[in-house]
C-alpha cells in the first residue's frame, strides 16, 4: 500500500479499483489488461484487482476512456480519533430544545436511521429494541454490526439518536436503527476504512429504507465511489424523497475534508455549552481539537461532554453501559441525524432538501452572528423549532382577512367593472 497523508488521515492506495456501470466489453477490456473481479457490490459496483499499485491509475484511465459509470482507486483510510471529554453534567438536550420537539413527536418506528461507523452494540439494553437491520462490511461478522474490543464510537453515535434509556435518552428514541459496520481498530488506536466497503454500506443502508444516514467519519482523498453512493441515497432514498445525509465536519480546526466537503448534504460542526463554536481555545477547555470549517458547513450541534450509550459491560469508553465523555463533530452529527428523524416523523412527505433547508432556517444564531458563515453555518441546531417547522411545512397558509384599505380597493374595482359592463 502507498500512503498519502492529509492532516489526521492516511489514505493508502491498494492494488484495487472500484468500477461502476461496466458492460461486457468493458469487463473483457479489464481482463485483457490483467485485472480480475474480486467482489461485486450493489448498484453495479465491482472491485477489480491488478498485479501492482503502479497499474491502478492505468486501469482507471483505461476504463474512464471507455465512458463507464465510474472508475476510481480503492483507498484504505487510516483515521486518528480525538481524545474523549471529561465527565460533567448533561446539557445538550436542554440547549437544543429536545423537550419542545418531544411535545410534537418522539419519533416513529417507520423512520429508520442508519449509523455507519465502527460497529454498534446492537445487543445494548437501550438500543436492542430499535434495531431493524445490521451488517458488517469491513470484517467477517456477516449480518451483525457488533464492534470489536473497545470500538465504542458507533455505539455512542447510535445512542445520541436512538437510546431508550431515561437517563441517557436519544433525541429520536422511538425511531428505528440500521447499523452498518464500516470501520475497525487497526490495533494502534486508529480506524481503518475501505472505500469499496463504505460505498456499498451507503447503498445498502438507503436500500434498507434508511430515512437518515449518520456519518461521523471522514478525511483523506475524495472517492468517486463514495460520492456516487451518497448521491443515490440523497436522490433515490425514501422512494425518491431522498434520505437525509448528515456528515461530520471534522475535528482539526482546518478546512472541511472529504466527504464533509461535498455540497448539498448536511455537514455538521460542533458547539459547546456556552453556545459558541468549539475551537481549541473555546471555554470548554478541550484544547486538543476544534471544529473544522468551510463552504459546505450547514449548522453546529453539541460536541463536548455528551452523555450516551457505551458498549455494555467493561469494554468501550467507560465501565458500564453508558458514557458521559463522548465528543467531537462525531457527537454533533448524530444529534442532527436525530433531529432529522423527528422532522420526518412529524411530516413524512418532506424531501431531503426541504429538511436540510429547515435545519438551517430554524437554527439559532450564535452570539454576534447575522447570516451564514463558513465557521458557524446557519447557527446551532434547535430541534424544537426544526420539528415544529417541519410539521407545518407544505400546509396551505391561512389567508388573513382583508383590512379596511383592501376592502375599499376591492369595492372600487367592483364599481369600475360594472361601469365597463354597462358601456358594452
UniProtKB/TrEMBL annotation:
Basic residues biased stretches: 402-424
Protein name: S8 family serine peptidase
Ranges for region Disordered: 395-424
Active site (record annotation): 117 (charge relay system), 153 (charge relay system), 330 (charge relay system)
Domain Peptidase S8/S53: 110-379
Keyword terms of this UniProt record: Hydrolase, Protease, Serine protease
Classification via InterPro entries: Peptidase_S8/S53_dom, Peptidase_S8/S53_dom_sf, Peptidase_S8_His-AS, Peptidase_S8_Ser-AS, Peptidase_S8_subtilisin-like, Peptidase_S8_subtilisin-rel
Membrane-crossing segments per the record: none
Amino acid at each position: 500500500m502507498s500512503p498519502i497523508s492529509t492532516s489526521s488521515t492516511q489514505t493508502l492506495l491498494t492494488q484495487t479499483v472500484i468500477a461502476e456501470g461496466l458492460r461486457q466489453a468493458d469487463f473483457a477490456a479489464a481482463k485483457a489488461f490483467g485485472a480480475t473481479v474480486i467482489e461485486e457490490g450493489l448498484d453495479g459496483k465491482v472491485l477489480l484487482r491488478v498485479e501492482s499499485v503502479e497499474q491502478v491509475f492505468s486501469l482507471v484511465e483505461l476504463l474512464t476512456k471507455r465512458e463507464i459509470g465510474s472508475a476510481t482507486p480503492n483507498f484504505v483510510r487510516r483515521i486518528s480519533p480525538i481524545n474523549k471529554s471529561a465527565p460533567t453534567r448533561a446539557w445538550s438536550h436542554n440547549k437544543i430544545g429536545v423537550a419542545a420537539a418531544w411535545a410534537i413527536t418522539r419519533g416513529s418506528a417507520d423512520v429508520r436511521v442508519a449509523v455507519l461507523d465502527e460497529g454498534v452494540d446492537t445487543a445494548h439494553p437501550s438500543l436492542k429494541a430499535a434495531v431493524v437491520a445490521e451488517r458488517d462490511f469491513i470484517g467477517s461478522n456477516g449480518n451483525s454490526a457488533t464492534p470489536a474490543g473497545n470500538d465504542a464510537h458507533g455505539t455512542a453515535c447510535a445512542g445520541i439518536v436512538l437510546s431508550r434509556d431515561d437517563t441517557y435518552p436519544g433525541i429520536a428514541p422511538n425511531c428505528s436503527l440500521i447499523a452498518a459496520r464500516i470501520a475497525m481498530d487497526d490495533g494502534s488506536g486508529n480506524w481503518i476504512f475501505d472505500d469499496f466497503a463504505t460505498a456499498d454500506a451507503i447503498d445498502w443502508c438507503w436500500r434498507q429504507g434508511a430515512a437518515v444516514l449518520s456519518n461521523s467519519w471522514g478525511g483523506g482523498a475524495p472517492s468517486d465511489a463514495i460520492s456516487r453512493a451518497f448521491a443515490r441515497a440523497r436522490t433515490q432514498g425514501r422512494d425518491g424523497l431522498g434520505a437525509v445525509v448528515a456528515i461530520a465536519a471534522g475535528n482539526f480546526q482546518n478546512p472541511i475534508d472529504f466527504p464533509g466537503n461535498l455540497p448539498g448534504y448536511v455537514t455538521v460542526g460542533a458547539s459547546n455549552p456556552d453556545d459558541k463554536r468549539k475551537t481549541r481555545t473555546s471555554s470548554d477547555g478541550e484544547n486538543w481539537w476544534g471544529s473544522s470549517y468551510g463552504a459546505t458547513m450547514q449548522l453546529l450541534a453539541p460536541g463536548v461532554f455528551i452523555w450516551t450509550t457505551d458498549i455494555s459491560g467493561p469494554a468501550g469508553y467507560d465501565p458500564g453501559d453508558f458514557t458521559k465523555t463522548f465528543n467531537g463533530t462525531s457527537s454533533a452529527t448524530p444529534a442532527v441525524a436525530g433531529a432529522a428523524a423527528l422532522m420526518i416523523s412529524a411530516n413524512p412527505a418532506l424531501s431531503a432538501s426541504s429538511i436540510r433547508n429547515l435545519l438551517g432556517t430554524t437554527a439559532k444564531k450564535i452570539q454576534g452572528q447575522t447570516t451564514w458563515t463558513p465557521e458557524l453555518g446557519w447557527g446551532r441546531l434547535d430541534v424544537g423549532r426544526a420539528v415544529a417547522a417541519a410539521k407545518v411545512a407544505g400546509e396551505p397558509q391561512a389567508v388573513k382577512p382583508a383590512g379596511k384599505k383592501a376592502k375599499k380597493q376591492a369595492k372600487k374595482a367592483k364599481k369600475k367593472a360594472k361601469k365597463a359592463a354597462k358601456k358594452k
